[in-house]
């Protein structure tokens, strides 16, 4: 106990006893055990820390009590108590027992103690309940007192075990633990799109005064609004998640759990918690009070909560949450396919939109051809509304289908990566001559490490049973360009996109025996210890090229 409390130390036990007598009836034989339990609970109440947020764990149907003492003062002394439920609704109340003049500053020993307790028992009006509340909202009680008094807080959860936070302060001049909310704490929705919602809110006075230590954090989910940040974190934990400490997401990525993804973009840090296939996003946006939430699903209702957070104390205050439903995605534009015509489609990977094609068959047998140019693409084909093919494609892919005249085929294409993808598509009657050349079993280029020298490398690739033209190109690249070149290569582009100086040779070959349909080339005149990018293009009867997978080879540094 503080030194200033010493004059209350002995009267405190009498006050406790008086408060106990007010809340507990005198024991009878039948209620003796209950009385003992209440007595045990009462005397195991805890002193509530002043000026510090306290976490209180509650067991179902078992009340928990805390108390604090206010000294006598010549003027009214203010104090505030803020209780934040972190899960289910709770019941809590404040009881006060004001000390009489007899108890202040007097020695209390022996029989005199019992006499004062007896007199207090006869004056239960000295104990009163000044506040009670039931619910799961953050609630603050502001009081004034000039008398010496014992205050008792009682908390009860009737639904399940839970926890809450309690903050008591008697010093209202040294600032606030919790950031302040504006007079109007509502969040306004000022824009709604198919995949975005734009929000704005009025600035917290704390942001204007302490910009460096205060920031806004936004929480987005599809279930409901949360009245406090600890309530949101508790809900996420109950779904099987482990969260970092409150708002540590804005400070350290090393606290992330395996089920979390961190996205850092334009000075905004977003944590996505993967919970039961429905994500909960926590996005800290600094001191901006307008934000557009990206990457939402069309025609979906989302709930938005904004918290103003004190980074020094981890304390937060919640704005009044809101909700909005994203717009329905418009029907995708359908492109008609014509027999034998090749079209190239660029797919938006960021928004994951479908690209739709349609074809009405004029023959019973048709063939769809897809040549992947860049990225990864998912193809879904239906005939008269029924799925006939659905898969991710790579390289060159053919689908030969049978049906009836005037059957309607629909093709949906989607990028499976966040970057843009592109693909060439052709449909034609099955008996037409293929537009693309006959392909070998593999489009990989092989290099022979033992045949490398300081100025030459030897590469090999597979051919087919059909005589075709093959052209080899080379380009010098740097170490830091390798990944980008291999990832961004357009496999549909032909030699016309290459510089003339990059061309090495062109040759024709084939072999009826596929086991021997392989050719090699030694490229000379290279520089020692240098990286080269090699490409091979295959040309069929129609003249449309197919590009083999690029190969990077480094010449020997010393020979």
From TrEMBL:
Keyword annotations from UniProtKB, A to Z: Glycoprotein, Neurogenesis, Repeat, Secreted, Signal
Q: Where in the cell is it found?
A: Secreted
**Organism's domain of life?**
Eukaryota
GO cellular component, alphabetical, reads: extracellular region
Q: Which gene encodes it?
A: Ndnf_1
Record the organism: Sakesphorus luctuosus
Q: Which GO terms describe its biological process?
A: nervous system development
Q: Which Pfam families match?
A: NDNF (PF10179), NDNF_C (PF19433), NDNF_N (PF24354)
One example GO MF annotation: heparin binding
Q: Which residues form the Fibronectin type-III domain?
A: 179-316, 437-545
As given in the record, the signal peptide range reads 1-21
What function does the entry list?
Answer: Secretory protein that plays a role in various cellular processes. Acts as a chemorepellent acting on gonadotropin-releasing hormone (GnRH) expressing neurons regulating their migration to the hypothalamus. Also promotes neuron migration, growth and survival as well as neurite outgrowth and is involved in the development of the olfactory system. May also act through the regulation of growth factors activity and downstream signaling. Also regulates extracellular matrix assembly and cell adhesiveness.
The record ties this protein, via InterPro entries, to:
FN3_dom, FN3_sf, Ig-like_fold, NDNF, NDNF_C, NDNF_Fn(III)_1, NDNF_N
Please give the name of this protein: Protein NDNF
């Amino acid at each position: 106990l503080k030194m200033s409390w010493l004059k209350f130390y002995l009267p405190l036990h009498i006050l406790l006893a008086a408060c106990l007598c007010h809340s507990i009836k005198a024991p009878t034989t039948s209620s003796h055990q209950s009385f003992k339990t209440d007595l045990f609970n009462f005397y195991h109440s805890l002193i509530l820390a002043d000026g510090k947020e306290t976490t209180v764990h509650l067991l179902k149907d078992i009340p928990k009590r805390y108390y604090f003492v206010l000294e006598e003062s010549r003027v009214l002394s203010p104090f505030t108590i803020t209780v934040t439920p972190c899960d289910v609704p709770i019941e809590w109340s404040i009881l006060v027992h004001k000390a009489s003049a007899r108890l202040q500053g007097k020695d209390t020993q022996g029989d005199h103690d019992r006499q004062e307790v007896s007199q207090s028992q006869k004056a239960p009006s000295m104990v009163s309940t000044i506040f009670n509340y039931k619910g799961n909202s953050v609630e603050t009680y502001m009081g004034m007192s000039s008398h010496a008094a014992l205050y008792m807080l009682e908390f009860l959860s009737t639904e399940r075990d839970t926890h809450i936070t309690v903050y008591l302060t008697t010093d209202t001049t040294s600032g606030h633990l919790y950031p302040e909310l504006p007079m109007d704490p509502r969040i306004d929705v000022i824009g709604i799109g198919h995949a975005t919602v734009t929000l704005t809110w009025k600035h917290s006075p704390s942001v204007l005064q302490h910009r460096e230590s205060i920031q806004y954090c936004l929480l987005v989910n599809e279930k409901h609004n949360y009245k406090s940040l600890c309530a949101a974190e508790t809900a996420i934990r109950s779904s099987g998640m482990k969260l970092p400490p409150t708002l540590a997401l804005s400070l350290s990525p090393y606290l992330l759990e395996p089920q979390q993804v961190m996205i850092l973009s334009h000075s905004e840090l977003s944590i996505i918690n993967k919970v039961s296939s429905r994500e909960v996003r926590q996005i800290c946006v600094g001191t901006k009070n307008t934000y557009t939430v990206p990457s939402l699903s069309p025609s979906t209702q989302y709930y938005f909560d904004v918290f103003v957070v004190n980074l020094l104390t981890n304390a937060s205050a919640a704005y009044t949450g809101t909700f909005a439903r994203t717009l329905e995605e418009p029907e995708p534009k359908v492109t008609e396919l014509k027999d034998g015509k090749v079209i190239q489609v660029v797919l938006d990977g960021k928004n994951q939109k479908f690209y739709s094609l349609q074809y009405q068959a004029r023959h019973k047998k048709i063939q769809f051809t897809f040549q992947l140019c860049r990225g990864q693409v998912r193809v879904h084909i239906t005939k008269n509304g029924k799925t006939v093919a659905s898969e991710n494609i790579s390289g060159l892919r053919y689908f030969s289908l049978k049906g009836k005249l005037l059957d309607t085929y629909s093709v949906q294409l989607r990028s499976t990566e966040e970057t843009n993808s592109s693909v060439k598509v052709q449909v034609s009657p099955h008996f037409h001559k293929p537009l693309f050349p006959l392909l070998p079993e593999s489009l990989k280029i092989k290099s022979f490490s033992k045949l490398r020298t300081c100025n030459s490398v030897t590469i090999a690739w597979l051919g087919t049973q059909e005589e075709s033209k093959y052209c080899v190109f080379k380009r010098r690249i740097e170490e830091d360009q390798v990944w980008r070149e291999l990832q961004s290569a357009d496999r549909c582009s032909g030699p016309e996109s290459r510089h003339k100086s990059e061309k090495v040779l062109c040759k024709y070959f084939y072999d009826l025996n596929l086991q021997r349909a392989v050719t090699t080339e030694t490229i000379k005149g290279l520089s020692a210890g240098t990286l080269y990018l090699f490409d091979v293009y295959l040309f069929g009867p129609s003249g449309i090229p197919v590009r083999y997978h690029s190969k990077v080879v480094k010449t020997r540094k010393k020979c």
